[in-house]
């Protein structure tokens, strides 16, 4: 799975110490591909062991706090609409974890994928708030080797990039692992485009 994840540009890791939960970082297409592969492998394992393949699953999608209102909708209209259109149970938790709110999805695998698509589309429509006054802060090189990634959001003179390689820096986990880039940091053509490989 890690090789496939690297090829399609997302990250996966298991929780420690039990390793019974898989964390997938990526866009909807990347996450759904990994989930499809995982489901197929688990189904094969259950069949091989002569066990019945489970039909129900649970997934937690973390929603940016600033996008939670769009996912909920007025008087929870959007949540009810997602549930009706996908067939999955959905609950957006009130607590915030690192500026993210857990959205619990449960049901059949296909129903969960449908609900995930709705949530991803709604969250993607909310721009990532750009930090203020960062363009003039000093920059520190974190690696002598070139790094690659994908532009995930742009707004005006600011872009956010998701690196393909893991970055060894104390603040690498800030902003969900996204790297802030100002137009003055770019040594090529500006503006960058969403989805652009850099």
Helical stretch tally: 5
Percent strand: 15-25%
Largest sheet: 3 strands, antiparallel
Helix content: 25-40%
Whole-number mean pLDDT: 87
Shape designation = globular
How many strand segments? 8
Residue stretches low in confidence (pLDDT < 50, at least 5 long) are none
| Distance N to C terminus | 24 Å
Please state the CA-atom Rg, rounded to the nearest Å: 19 Å
Which structural category fits the helices and strands? alpha+beta
What order do the SSEs take from the amino end to the carboxyl end, as H and E? HEEHEHHEEHEEE
Tell me the strand order in the biggest sheet.
3-5-4
What's the SSE blueprint?
Blueprint: H1 2-8, E1 11-14, E2 22-25, H2 28-48, E3 56-64, H3 68-72, H4 77-86, E4 89-92, E5 100-108, H5 109-124, E6 149-155, E7 158-163, E8 178-182
Antiparallel strand pairs: 1-2, 3-5, 4-5, 6-7, 7-8
Helix pairs in contact: 4-5
Give the gist of this structure.
This protein is an alpha+beta fold. The chain has helices at residues 2-8, 28-48, 68-72, 77-86, 109-124, and strands spanning 11-14, 22-25, 56-64, 89-92, 100-108, 149-155, 158-163, 178-182.
């Amino acid at each position: 799975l890690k090789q496939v994840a690297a090829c399609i540009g997302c990250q996966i890791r298991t929780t420690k110490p039990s390793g019974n939960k898989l964390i997938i970082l990526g866009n909807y297409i990347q996450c759904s591909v990994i989930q499809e592969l995982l489901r197929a492998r688990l189904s094969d394992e259950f069949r091989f062991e002569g066990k019945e393949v489970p039909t129900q699953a649970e997934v937690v999608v973390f929603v940016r706090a600033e996008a939670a209102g769009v996912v909920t909708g007025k008087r929870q209209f959007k949540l009810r609409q997602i549930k009706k259109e996908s067939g999955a149970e959905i609950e957006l938790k009130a607590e915030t974890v690192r500026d993210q709110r857990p959205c619990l999805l449960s049901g059949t695998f296909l129903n969960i994928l449908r609900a995930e698509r709705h949530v991803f589309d709604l969250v993607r429509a909310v721009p990532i708030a750009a930090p203020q006054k960062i363009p003039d802060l000093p920059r520190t090189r974190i690696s002598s080797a070139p790094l690659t990634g994908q532009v995930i959001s742009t707004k005006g003179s600011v872009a956010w990039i998701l690196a393909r390689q893991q970055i060894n820096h104390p603040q690498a986990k800030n902003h969900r692992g996204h790297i802030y880039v100002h137009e003055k940091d770019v040594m090529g053509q500006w503006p960058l485009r969403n989805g652009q490989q850099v």
